[in-house]
Structure formats: structure tokens, C-alpha cells
Specification:
- The protein has about 425 residues and is an alpha+beta fold.
- It folds into four domains: about 1-100, no CATH class; about 110-155 and about 385-425, Alpha-D-phosphohexomutase, C-terminal domain (TATA-Binding Protein, 2-Layer Sandwich), CATH 3.30.310; about 165-180 and about 365-385; about 185-360, no CATH class.
- About 35% of the residues lie in helices and about 35% in strands.
- A hairpin with a 6-residue loop joins strand 14 and strand 15 (about 320-325).
- Helix 5 runs antiparallel to helix 8.
């Protein structure tokens, strides 16, 4: 039993809790600096030549699961350890403190009063009347008063002792919710062109919800730089119910546990007309070798597939740049304009942008939000100081002894006692 008690005392120590919080904070910082959920080859390519902090290469990083810090075995172990430490601290320390605060303590000796942090002695000729005045005055100021055989015990702010317990409970719920969300949450990143959709499966691997992009708009400044992206999406339920919502950067959509973010934009396709052909919608792909935001496609100019040209664009507003197969710039063509390339007429009808949508499903969110509320309530209650006052009389010397304690703001309590004394003197 002694060893168990020692282990529990060690678990609930403040030093251990601070150390765990520090380790968790460092782990979160590492999870922010190191890209998460990438392929193994990504970490080999990026960290074998340039190790993280100069010592952690790709092999070590993968071995210790730094590629998914928040679901790694050691990070979950730290969270469980901290939760256990908080639970033990609450049961072994905070609950007894709360129980002690709720129990009435009856001081029967003037010597006990004199040992309190704040103590005063009053001479009175009528102790019964003085005690009654004190009792009424305390009740008037919101104190909870208990009188026993001419002795008075009063307390105020006992609810403040509940604050630390609620904070511990909130932190435990926060860790449970965050862990549950990390292990069971899903993240999907998808680029959609207007009219396209993505189907989300329910727990039974059946089609449960459809996200359809109805309209996408890029707002640009006078210099042509993108400032804001807005998507109008249709949320289609399994029963056919449709709801239309608009999202933009920093203004996501939350729907039945799903959060839909406007994350990015791209260009999906270009519509062209070759000679007198029908309008052709041709998909385009990013070409990082030509720039950060350059998309393009290769098309032939002859029926036999010969004499290909490269068409590139960097904005849905155009223009399109046309290159020969040797890299020579042949023309810059604006939308709805026509140019003749190698004997072939080419017209750009439009450029279709696509919306980058980030879908996140986190089942731990309700627990996390609940934990925040509990922590806020607990923090607010912790501000309240718990104060206690005892009053007793000594018939032989016609004396009244008044003393008090407070877990915080002792100076505030010391300023309250003179008001009681002056009340008696009147």
C-alpha cells in the first residue's frame, strides 16, 4: 500500500504535470514544423539530405512516427499519462480540499482563533447582542452562517474550490476528444470544377452525402492577384434534399459534423475551337517546371497528330500562351480571340477554374467544445476566493474573538473585518 501511495503521489505531482505539458507542447511544435501524412518517399527525399534539427533523418522520422505525430504511440501515451495524472490529482487532492471546504469547522477556544491568519479581539458588555449583530451583518453581506451554542462560523465563495476540479475534468475531456478525433477523423482534399461533385460514404460504406460545386468565383485585385475565392455548393442528402451554401476563405461550412473549407483554387480545363470544329473542352494540368501557377496541355495541329503545340495559362482570365514543340513562343491569345498556328485556326472560348475544397470530419469536436466550456467555467470559478470567519465569546473577560482565513486575497478579507468591528462599536 505504501508503494502504491508513493506511485500515486508521484503521478499527481505538479512537476510531472508541468513536464508532460512541456513535452506535449514540444511534440505539437514538431507536428507543425514537419509535414504530416505524406508518403514515406517524401520523408526520405526531404530529410535524408537535410535532417530535421540536424539529426533526425527520414529513417528516424518514420521510425518514431513523426510523420503522424498526433496519432503516434508516444504522443497518445503522453496524453493518457497526463490525463491519468490530472485524474489522480483531482481524487487525491482537489476532492479532499472541496470536501474540507464544505465541512463546517467549529472552533471552541480563543487560542484556536488567535492562530488564524487574521484575528481581532473586541471588548463588549453585551456579547449576545454583539453576536446577533455580527450574524445579521454577515448574512446581509452574503455569507453562509452557522451558529452553534453562541459560536458563529461563516463562509463565502466555497464554490471556488470546484474550479480546479472542473479545469482538470475539462482538460481530460479535451485530450479524449482530440485523441478520438485524430484516430477516427477523416480529411479529404479535392479540386472540383463547376458541375462536378464528390460522394461521401457513411459508416456502412454507402453513399451518404454528396457535395456538388454549383459555382466558383475568384476575386482579384486591380493587379490581377487573387484576393478571395468563393464557392457555392449544394449539399445533397441521401433522400434527395438539397441545401445551397456559400463558402470562402476563413468562412467554412459546418454541416452535421462535417466542416467544408475553401482551401485553394486551380484551373481545370480550357475550351477551344480548332478551325470549324465543335467546342472542345480539354483538361489541363499543372506544370510546375514552368512556374508555381501554370497549367497547360499539348494538342496536335494536324489530323495525323503531328506538329503538336503547348498551350499554357496562369489565370481563368487568360491570355493563353502557345509554344512550339521546341519551346518557341508562337502567340499570346486572349479569350474569344482567334489566331492561325501552322495553318490551323485556333480560338480560346473560355478557361474553367476549379475550387480546392478541404473536407474534414472530426467526431471529437463535440467533446472538445464541451471541454472548452467546462474549462472556462472552472477558470471563472477558480478566481473566486474561499473565505471563512469564526466568532466566539469569552464571558469571563467580556471578549469577542474574530478570526478568518482565505485561500487567496487575504488582504481583501483583512479589510472586511474592520467593518464588522466598527459595526460592533456602534
Amino acid at each position: 500500500m505504501k508503494k502504491i501511495s508513493q506511485v500515486l503521489n508521484w503521478l499527481s505531482s505538479l512537476k510531472i504535470a508541468i513536464l508532460l505539458l512541456l513535452l506535449i507542447a514540444i511534440s505539437c511544435a514538431a507536428g507543425t514544423l514537419i509535414p504530416q501524412q505524406e508518403s514515406n518517399q517524401f520523408y526520405y527525399d526531404n530529410f535524408n539530405k537535410n535532417p530535421f534539427l540536424g539529426i533526425i533523418n527520414g529513417n528516424i522520422l518514420l521510425l518514431f512516427e513523426f510523420n503522424h505525430v498526433y496519432t503516434s504511440f508516444w504522443f497518445l501515451f503522453l496524453l493518457i499519462w497526463l490525463g491519468l495524472a490530472l485524474a489522480v490529482c483531482s481524487f487525491r487532492r482537489q476532492l479532499p480540499i472541496l470536501k474540507s471546504a464544505l465541512n463546517w469547522i467549529d472552533y471552541k477556544s480563543p487560542r484556536q482563533i488567535a492562530k488564524l491568519a487574521i484575528a481581532q479581539t473586541i471588548v463588549t458588555n453585551n456579547y449576545s447582542e454583539s453576536l446577533e449583530k455580527i450574524k445579521l451583518n454577515l448574512k446581509k453581506q452574503g455569507w453562509n452562517v452557522k451558529e452553534t451554542e453562541g459560536r458563529i462560523a461563516a463562509r463565502q465563495g466555497v464554490i471556488g474550490r470546484l474550479g480546479p476540479i472542473l479545469i482538470h475534468l475539462g482538460m481530460i475531456l479535451l485530450m479524449i476528444g482530440a485523441t478520438y478525433g485524430s484516430l477516427n477523423g477523416k480529411t479529404i482534399e479535392k479540386f472540383l470544377a463547376p458541375g462536378r461533385s464528390i460522394d461521401l460514404l457513411n459508416n456502412n460504406e454507402e453513399k451518404g452525402l454528396t457535395i456538388e460545386l454549383q459555382k466558383f468565383k475568384i476575386e482579384r485585385d486591380p493587379q490581377g492577384r487573387a484576393e478571395q475565392y468563393k464557392s457555392k455548393v449544394n449539399i445533397i442528402e441521401q433522400n434527395g434534399t438539397i441545401q445551397s451554401k456559400e463558402i470562402s476563405v476563413n468562412y467554412p461550412l459546418r454541416y452535421k459534423g462535417l466542416t467544408l473549407y475553401q482551401a485553394d483554387w486551380a484551373l481545370a480545363a480550357i475550351t477551344i475551337q480548332i478551325n470549324d470544329s465543335p467546342k472542345l473542352q480539354i483538361p489541363i494540368e499543372a506544370i510546375p517546371d514552368l512556374g508555381e501557377q501554370v497549367w497547360g496541355t499539348i494538342i496536335p495541329t494536324q489530323k495525323d497528330g503531328q506538329s503538336p503545340i503547348l498551350i499554357t495559362v496562369n489565370s481563368e482570365l487568360g491570355p493563353a500562351s502557345i509554344f512550339d514543340n521546341d519551346g518557341t513562343l508562337l502567340a499570346n491569345l486572349s479569350i474569344n480571340n482567334e489566331v492561325e498556328i501552322k495553318g490551323t485556326k485556333l480560338k480560346i472560348i473560355n478557361i474553367i477554374p476549379s475550387s480546392g475544397l478541404l473536407l474534414k470530419y472530426d467526431p471529437g469536436v463535440p467533446l472538445v467544445y464541451t471541454s472548452f466550456a467546462i474549462i472556462l467555467i472552472g477558470g471563472s470559478l477558480s478566481i473566486i476566493s474561499t473565505k471563512k470567519i469564526w466568532v466566539l465569546h469569552e464571558k469571563e473577560n467580556s471578549m469577542i474573538y474574530i478570526g478568518g482565513l482565505s485561500n487567496r486575497n487575504l488582504s481583501g478579507l483583512s479589510k472586511e473585518l474592520p467593518s464588522l468591528i466598527s459595526f460592533l462599536e456602534n
